[in-house]
Design a protein that fits this description.
Blueprint lengths: L1 H8 L13 E4 L7 E19 L1 H9 L6 E15 L7 E13 L11 E7 L2 E9 L5 H17 L5 E4 L3 E12 L2 E16 L3 E12 L7 E15 L4 E17 L2 E19 L2
Antiparallel strand pairs: 1-7, 2-3, 2-13, 3-4, 4-5, 5-6, 8-9, 9-10, 10-11, 11-12, 12-13
Helix pairs in contact: 1-3
Length: 277
């Protein structure tokens, strides 16, 4: 469930641009007195193949683990974020409401109407301070709150001006739990401004996933790549569409067993931005 929650909130990059003589003034942040209606769809397929001693394989069977293990996940998420008036310090309130949160079977993951409250500014990601949800267990509620806040705190993008053909790079660590092993990785994402007009900036997005394991018990190799596109709404200073497809292979070797994993995922997010009346 924690992996699914992380996927739910890891919902693309929030960027802020301005245009002047075919130059995008790049910086992060929401705008005050605005509404952001976001829809997110993510699907992922995992296949894990185990090999090793007969004793190890017998333990897997006794635990009910199929070999290979195949997992399919999907979620469909709709949220609306609303920002209020800016104050003298440059901050403004922000609320995030979950309108829909469904898994692959159509089951609700997060109750509709769940609300998060916090503050934001035009130069920084939101800092959330509370969550309200009827009928949700307190531990689950805190997991959601901490995941959202952690995601915002990690979305730190450079402030710079970009011309067509120029790029910027973002690096983020990721820990992926696989079969009880925490796989440490580094994600390097390159955003290249492909073209622009008076309303939109169009980016090519590429990713590489690099293994950064420090656990000497395991010999770990693997790599992944991702490719996608991003459309930036210049007047509203936000991303209007973000798509990404990712493929990743992982190989873990231990004296008692081997693990081979293949994964594939597809992500798409759209956002409609309106100003408060």
């Amino acid at each position: 469930m924690k992996k699914l929650l992380l996927l739910l909130f890891i919902s693309g990059t929030f960027c802020n641009y301005g245009q002047s003589n075919q130059v995008l003034d790049f910086k992060a942040g929401y705008s005050p007195e605005s509404n952001y209606l976001q829809t997110t769809f993510n699907s992922s397929d995992y296949e894990v193949l185990y090999s090793g001693s007969e004793k190890f394989l017998d333990v897997l069977k006794q635990n009910g683990t199929t070999n290979p293990t195949k997992i399919k996940n999907a979620f469909n998420l709709e949220t609306i974020s609303k920002t209020g008036k800016i104050d003298k310090s440059g901050n403004f309130p922000i609320t995030i409401e979950y309108l829909k949160s469904l898994d692959a079977n159509g089951k609700t993951i997060i109750p509709n109407g769940t609300m998060l409250y916090g503050k934001a500014s035009s130069s920084a990601m939101p800092v959330m301070d509370s969550i309200v949800s009827k009928g949700m267990e307190e531990s689950f509620k805190q997991t959601i709150f901490q995941t959202v806040q952690s995601t915002f705190s990690q979305v730190i993008l450079p402030q710079k001006k970009l011309k067509v053909g120029e790029s910027f790079i973002q690096e983020n660590p990721l820990t992926l739990p696989v079969a009880g092993i925490n796989i440490e990785m580094q994600i390097t994402t390159t955003y290249t401004l492909k073209s622009m007009n008076s309303k939109n900036g169009f980016f090519d997005v590429s990713q590489t996933y690099t293994i950064k394991m420090s656990d000497a018990r395991f010999e770990t190799t693997g790599a992944g790549v991702g490719k996608g596109n991003l459309i930036y709404d210049i007047p509203n200073h936000f991303i209007s569409e973000n798509t990404l497809g990712m493929d990743f292979d992982l190989h873990v070797k231990h004296p008692d067993f081997n693990l081979d994993m293949k994964s594939k995922s597809d992500f798409k997010q759209t956002c409609q931005i309106t100003k408060n009346k």
